[in-house]
Specification:
single chain; about 400 residues; alpha/beta; Metallo-beta-lactamase, Chain A; Rossmann fold; 7-stranded mixed β-sheet; about 25% strand; binds MU-OXO-diiron
Length: about 400
C-alpha cells in the first residue's frame, strides 16, 4: 500500500503482512498482522516513527522513495518487527539519527549493530520539535519489553503507542471501524502479549490519562479514532477483577476425561456460571489465552500418561501460569489407568498463580456415579466462590 495520510503531514507507512501465520515462532496469527511506521513531516525536520520487520523492508523503502530527508528515526521498541529495518533507513539517509531512550539504545546496538554515533537519546517526557510538529516521548516500560516508550504528537493529539493497543490484524481499514472484529483482535493481542504485564499496563494507562488523545496509532493493526473505547477495554482487561467465567481446557485419550468435563460443564452452566471449554487436541491456543483474560476459575481436565498429566494439559497449565491469569480458583479433573500424579504435577505447573485450589476429581477408568456426584460438588463450590466475589 502507498502512504496514507492521517493528518496534514502525518502519514501511515509500513507494511500489511496478510500471509504471516506465526509470530515469534510462538503466537498463531489467524488474521495476519501489520508493521506500522509513521512519517511526521515538520517545517524543519522529518521523523520516521519505527520501521518494519526485515521481511518487509522493501515495502517500507519503496514508500520512502519520494521522501528526500529523514532526520530522525524514533525507535519506540527494540524488538525486530519494528526496529529491524532501521539499518537500511540509516544507510539511505546518512544524516539520520535514531531517537530512543538509553535502554533501547543499548539493545539496538546489541541486536542490530547500530553504532553509537547514530543515536540521540531522550528522557521521559522530553520533547522534540520538528517545526510545527512536536513529539513528546512518554516512557511506557514493560509493555512488553523494559525499554518500550510511546510518542505523543501534541499539535495533532496522536498517540503513537507501538505494541500497546496493537492487534495482529491485516486489514485495508485505516481505522478500527469493524468494531467487533477489531475488538476481538485487540483482546487476543492483549492476552498473548500484554497480559503477563498487567500491572504495568495499569500503571501506563494512568500515565497516559493526562493526555488528550484523538487517535491512537499503534505499531500493529488498525488505528483507533475512538481512543476511549480501546482505553476502557484495556482498563477492564488489566483490572484485578475477573468475570463470572470458568475456563476448562482438557485432553481425553479414551473418553473418560471428556465425560467428566462434559458433566462438569453442564453443572457449571446449571449453576449460572459462564464456561469456555477447549479440547486441547484441536484448540486455537490464542482463543484459550483470550478466555484466560476474564477467567475467575480454571479447571484443567487431563488423562494420565505414564503417571503424569498429558503433555497438552501441561502446556495449558504452563500457558495460564506464564500469562499470569488473574483467576482466583483452580482445580483438576481427570482419569487414570493404574496410578496418577497428574493433580500434583498440574498444581506445581500453576504455582505462579494466586489461586485457591479446589478439591480435584480424579477417577480410575470411566467415571461412575460417585465421580459424577463429586463433579457436581465441584461445580457448586465454584459457584459459591464466584458468588462470594460478587461475580454472579
Ligand atoms: Fe511488535 Fe514487541 O514487537
Amino acid at each position: 500500500m502507498k502512504p496514507r495520510m492521517i493528518r496534514e503531514d502525518v502519514y501511515l507507512v509500513g507494511a500489511v503482512d496478510w500471509d504471516r501465520r506465526m509470530f515469534d515462532a510462538l503466537v498463531p496469527l489467524p488474521d495476519g498482522t501489520s508493521y506500522n511506521a509513521y512519517l511526521v513531516q515538520g517545517l524543519e525536520r522529518t521523523a520516521l516513527l519505527d520501521t518494519v520487520d526485515p521481511s518487509m523492508s522493501e515495502t517500507l523503502m519503496a514508500q520512502l522513495d519520494g521522501v528526500e530527508r529523514i532526520d530522525y528515526i524514533v525507535a519506540h521498541h527494540a524488538e525486530q518487527d519494528h526496529s529491524g529495518s532501521i539499518p537500511l533507513v540509516l544507510s539511505r539517509y546518512p544524516g539520520a539519527r535514531v531517537v530512543c531512550n538509553p535502554k533501547c539504545k543499548g539493545m539496538l546496538m546489541e541486536l542490530l549493530g547500530i553504532p553509537d554515533e547514530r543515536f540521540v537519546t531522550v528522557e521521559d517526557r522530553e520533547t522534540l520539535s520538528l517545526g510545527g510538529k512536536t513529539l513528546e516521548f512518554i516512557f511506557t516500560p514493560w509493555v512488553h519489553w523494559p525499554e518500550t516508550m510511546a510518542s505523543y504528537l501534541k499539535e495533532d493529539r496522536i498517540l503513537f503507542s507501538c505494541d500497546l493497543f496493537g492487534s495482529h490484524l491485516a486489514t485495508s481499514d485505516l481505522y478500527s471501524t469493524e468494531r467487533a472484529r477489531a475488538e476481538e483482535a485487540a483482546k487476543r493481542y492483549y492476552a498473548e502479549i500484554m497480559m503477563p504485564f498487567r500491572t504495568f499496563v495499569q500503571r501506563n494507562l494512568e500515565r497516559l490519562a493526562g493526555y488528550e488523545i484523538d487517535v491512537i496509532a499503534p505499531s500493529h493493526g488498525p488505528l483507533h479514532d475512538k481512543p476511549s473505547l480501546m482505553m476502557d477495554s484495556y482498563r477492564e482487561w488489566a483490572s484485578d477483577r475477573p468475570g463470572n467465567l470458568v475456563v476448562v481446557p482438557y485432553v481425553s485419550m479414551h473418553g473418560s476425561t471428556r465425560r467428566m468435563v462434559e458433566h462438569l460443564v453442564g453443572e457449571l452452566v446449571s449453576n449460572g456460571l459462564g464456561v469456555r471449554q477447549f479440547d486441547l487436541t484441536v484448540a486455537d491456543i490464542g482463543k484459550l489465552a483470550v478466555a484466560l483474560v476474564d477467567a475467575a476459575t480454571i479447571v484443567i481436565g487431563t488423562s494420565t500418561v505414564h503417571v503424569g498429566p498429558h503433555p497438552l494439559a501441561v502446556y495449558a497449565a504452563y500457558l495460564a501460569n506464564s500469562l499470569k491469569s488473574k483467576a482466583r480458583f483452580a482445580s483438576v479433573v481427570g482419569s487414570y489407568g493404574w496410578g496418577t500424579k497428574a493433580v500434583e504435577q498440574i498444581t506445581s505447573q500453576i504455582s505462579g498463580l494466586k489461586v485457591e485450589m479446589l478439591e480435584p476429581v480424579v477417577c480410575r477408568g470411566f467415571p461412575g456415579e460417585a465421580e459424577l456426584r463429586a463433579l457436581e460438588g465441584l461445580a457448586e463450590s465454584i459457584a459459591q466462590r464466584h458468588r462470594q466475589l460478587g461475580l454472579m
